[in-house]
Amino acid sequence: MSAPLHFLTFSRSHAQLAEVLGQLEDAGLAPQALHPHDVPTGPVLVFFDHHTALAEVQETIEAYQLYAEARIMAVSVGLLPTTSTWALLRSGAAEVFAWFGVEKPVQIVASRLRYWQTQEQQVQELQRRLVGRSRRWLDTLRQLTDMAASNCQVLITGESGTGKELVAREVHRLDARPHKRDCVVVDCTNLIPGLSGSELFGHEKGAFTNAISTRDGALALAHDGTLFLDELGELPLPLQAELLRALQEGTYKRVGSNQWRQARFRLVCATNRDLGAEVKRGTFRQDLYYRVSGWTCELPPLRERKEDVVVLAEHFFAQHRGPRQLVDQQVYDFLLLRDYPGNVRELQQLVGRIASKHLGEGPITIGDIPRADWPDFARLGAAAPSSTELEAGVKSLLYQGLGLKEIKEQVTEVAKQLAIRHENGNLKLAAHRLGCSERILQMHTARLAED
Ligand SMILES: Nc1ncnc2c1ncn2[C@@H]1O[C@H](COP(=O)(O)OP(=O)(O)OP(=O)(O)O)[C@@H](O)[C@H]1O
């Protein structure tokens, strides 16, 4: 079942708005009203007109970006200057148009909704292997489905351990080419320049000392399939030139052969290097860079999608110990508070170490965390406020004549603010950290906004 369509309006042009809602209703798409502090759970039409303060609309759209399921269409029921369109797209709107400035606006909405529905089904299926529910991750998976459906060459970038190889394999899996063949993976760090590209292009018998028989290279194996070049930044310069030729002309020669062969494959590349900077330094060919980066997809580091730490950890615990294994909340709290410079791979390895230390029955507890992975208590202790600092703060509240109830309220408010700030405004994570409901923090932020 798809999420219901909602709308929120900033427009006071009541007659136009009624007309728009009437047209949507006639098409069977009657949206339900969303109130400013409601949590968006699916597609939302945000109506505005040329009298609306654009900043207000932008603020709301930006706030909706915290919710993974929210998909926004910003619709003007008046004029729509191009600058406003850009501003709203930058805030995170997926579609921006003027209702009375386009032909068949209802069709625009209907086709977007249909597309999003199909895409969400694909994304849900992808999440079984590419685990994560955060907004950043869902946006990445949505982009992945779009990339896979296009004919573009794809360049996947991101820090080590963010899932580039997994994503590359899914691009191939979702690729709808009829009769597509295999996905062939080449790790460019293993390519030896001295072998003049035999790994990529193949070779004839006797082409070099160890060439005891004729062999196909990766391009031949990937014919009518996908060639995945991992760590593309490591591709030696001479091979960059040969690869470019094969991509431009669609032909290549085996090492030691004069015969041109056809190269027909989809190219997907991954790198954790900044290829733009490599081009400037002269270590990567600019023409090849343009050729391979038809569609660039940047995978977020784990620190920018901390909400996914728990679901990822659950997934890895289940992989190690089966889906029935119980895990103590304190273990997840420990995993959440830690940093992961090695991203998902580091979390996966840590979970593996904890899971394999757990013996026998019962839930996995913090007692199963290997000593080498324990937090640095000395450092944490130094950062914590001393009891005298805390005492001084409470003393000043007492001198102001506040009683226990007010002091508790003040400290609670400070704790909420600090937790929200610490989690970069993510209320879900802040609520988890404080052990309270997200609703409580929503009320807190709404109250602050009103003050
Ligand atoms: N979203 C995810 N869900 C489940 N497993 C994941 C996810 N992301 C990464 N992994 C796992 O983390 C490990 C590292 O992923 P992967 O090899 O795809 O990363 P990478 O970005 O290609 O790393 P590198 O740049 O070091 O080659 C793999 O074991 C992979 O299965």
UniProtKB/TrEMBL annotation:
Gene Ontology molecular function: any one: ATP binding
PANTHER family reported in the protein's UniProt record: TRANSCRIPTIONAL REGULATORY PROTEIN (PTHR32071)
Native source organism of the sequence: Hymenobacter gummosus
Domain Sigma-54 factor interaction: 130-356
GO biological process: regulation of DNA-templated transcription
Name used for this protein in its record: Sigma-54-dependent Fis family transcriptional regulator
Annotated InterPro entries: AAA+_ATPase, AAA_lid_NorR, P-loop_NTPase, Sigma_54_int, Sigma_54_int_dom_ATP-bd_1
Record lineage: Bacteria, Pseudomonadati, Bacteroidota, Cytophagia, Cytophagales
Cross-referenced CDD domains: AAA
Highest rank taxon of the organism: Bacteria
PROSITE patterns for this protein: SIGMA54_INTERACT_1, SIGMA54_INTERACT_4
Keywords, ordered alphabetically: ATP-binding, Nucleotide-binding
